[in-house]
Automatic annotation (TrEMBL):
InterPro entries: Homeodomain-like_sf, HTH-type_TetR-like_transc_reg, HTH_TetR, Tet_transcr_reg_TetR-rel_C_sf. It comes from Pseudoxanthomonas daejeonensis. Residues 28-88 form the HTH tetR-type domain. The keyword DNA-binding applies. This is TetR family transcriptional regulator. It holds the Pfam family TetR_N. Residues 1-29 are annotated as: Disordered. The keyword Acetylation does not apply. It comes from the Bacteria.
């Protein structure tokens, strides 16, 4: 008696099952969209309070998909810093390094540079106030250790040289002049919703803040001299 012939297994034509949260091969890259959603949630809720679920909801995806792209919350924050925050600040340093001339040229380069950075990245001022200025902010160490030192030290050093040449008021502290520049640019940008409502000035934008800061710093001493108050 002949043994029954064994049937060869038929190869399955069904596509392999995709892991949970894993996008299909033809799916668009959602990384930029997810980074933007993370920035929006960081600005509105704060880094510590923004959960992966909140960010996924804002982006219109599942938490599993967010986890597929970035892993955990710490890795997502690292990606936001590397791919959004640091590239946003880089043009400011380049603008300062290109500035020729004395203290006035350096002031103009900083004000114009930071105005351009804010115009391109409107999320930055609110995030800066919440996560850098506020006590316990999630980006304070990053600012003081990686972002601010090259810019602040470069500008303070050039202000000190201008002061030594007699081009800058000797009563000014070159380090605090840098602080004043931040106060005349980042704070007005972050507080725009408040002062626009206060003064019914919806038409004022960052370009107006930029011009105001330049006039205040570049012509302030000239007005004092004119009135004999210097």
């Amino acid at each position: 008696m002949r043994p029954a012939s064994r049937r060869k297994p038929v190869a399955s034509t069904a596509p392999p099952r995709r892991g949970r949260g894993r996008p299909g091969a033809d799916a668009p890259d959602l990384r930029p969209r997810l980074l933007d959603a993370a920035l929006a949630c960081y600005g509105s809720h704060g880094i510590a309070a923004a959960s992966l679920r909140d960010i996924a909801r804002h982006a219109g995806v599942t938490p599993a998909l967010l986890h597929y792209y970035f892993g955990d919350r710490a890795q997502l924050l690292d990606a936001v810093v590397a791919e959004r925050l640091l590239p946003a600040i880089a043009p400011l340093r380049e603008s300062i390094q290109r500035a020729d001339g004395g203290a006035a040229a350096l002031v103009a380069a900083f004000i114009d540079g930071i105005a351009e950075v804010i115009a391109r990245n409107p999320w930055l001022p609110a995030l800066w106030v919440r996560e850098v200025v506020s006590e316990g902010g999630g980006l304070r160490d990053l600012l003081t250790e990686r972002i601010a030192p090259p810019i602040a030290q470069l500008m303070a050093g050039r202000f000190a040289l201008a002061q030594a040449r007699g081009e800058l008021n000797p009563d000014l502290d070159p380090r605090l002049l840098m602080v004043s520049l931040i106060g005349l640019t980042m704070f007005p940008a972050a507080g725009a919703p408040i002062w626009r409502r206060l003064f019914d000035a919806q038409e004022l934008g960052m370009d107006d803040v930029r011009r105001h800061a330049r006039v205040l710093l570049e012509r302030g001493l000239e007005l004092e001299d004119r009135h004999g108050n210097a």
